[in-house]
Structures are given as structure tokens and as C-alpha cells.
Design a protein that fits this description.
Radius of gyration: 14 Å
Order of helices and strands: HHHHH
CATH superfamily: AhpD-like
Distance between the termini: 18 Å
CATH architecture: Up-down Bundle
Shape: globular
Largest sheet: none
């Protein structure tokens, strides 16, 4: 089964927008937390995105993979850098993580 990560992220974004209309306070809180957590600090934004991607891969979250790979690509991440992070995901998460690591490479190619 081939996943289309541009479609996955577009679909999720549509429904996040709907949820924002229905639950604006919750979504404002999430947005504030997201901005604060991902901002450059002692650890740069790119490293934080790698951490978020690793969690998405090991937790088997297609949306997380799509959004974080898209951001990493925008931040100038190379496929080689991505593959090193994915190697750690496979090491820590085993065979299940391997399946989602392959998906993350697919997402990189799609974005």
C-alpha cells in the first residue's frame, strides 16, 4: 500500500481547520504549545523536528511523519541526514519502526 503524504497532510489540515472552528481555545492552546516547543533554543528547530519525526515513526503516526518530514525538507534536511535519524528509529523501535521509516523516506520523496 502506497501512502500519499501530501494528501494525508492536506486532509488532516482540513479537519484541523474544522476543529479550530469548533474548539478554538483548545486549538489556540495547542498552537501556542507547538510554537514554544519547536522554537530555536538550546536545541535548534531542525533537531527538534528530527525528535518529533522519530517519535512519529516509532509511534506509527502517518500524519506526524508527513508534517515533520515536510518541515524538515523546508529546513534543508538532506535525505542522508534523514536516513541517519531513521536508522536510530529502527534501532530503537525494531521491525515496526522499519515499516514507518520506509514511509518517512517515501514522504521525503513526495515533498
Amino acid at each position: 500500500m502506497s501512502k500519499e503524504f501530501k494528501s494525508i497532510t492536506k486532509d488532516i489540515s482540513q479537519y484541523v481547520g474544522e476543529l479550530n472552528k469548533l474548539q478554538p481555545n483548545v486549538m489556540k492552546g495547542f498552537s501556542t504549545m507547538s510554537s514554544a516547543a519547536s522554537a530555536d533554543g538550546q536545541i535548534d528547530k531542525k533537531t527538534k523536528e528530527f525528535i518529533a519525526l522519530a517519535i512519529g515513526v516509532t509511534q506509527h503516526c502517518d500524519g506526524c511523519i508527513g508534517f515533520h518530514v515536510k518541515t524538515l525538507k523546508r529546513l534543508g534536511t538532506t535525505k542522508e541526514e534523514l536516513s541517519e535519524v531513521l536508522g536510530m528509529c529502527v534501532y530503537m523501535g525494531g521491525g515496526l519502526a522499519l515499516m514507518y521509516a520506509a514511509d518517512a523516506l517515501r514522504a521525503y520523496d513526495q515533498f
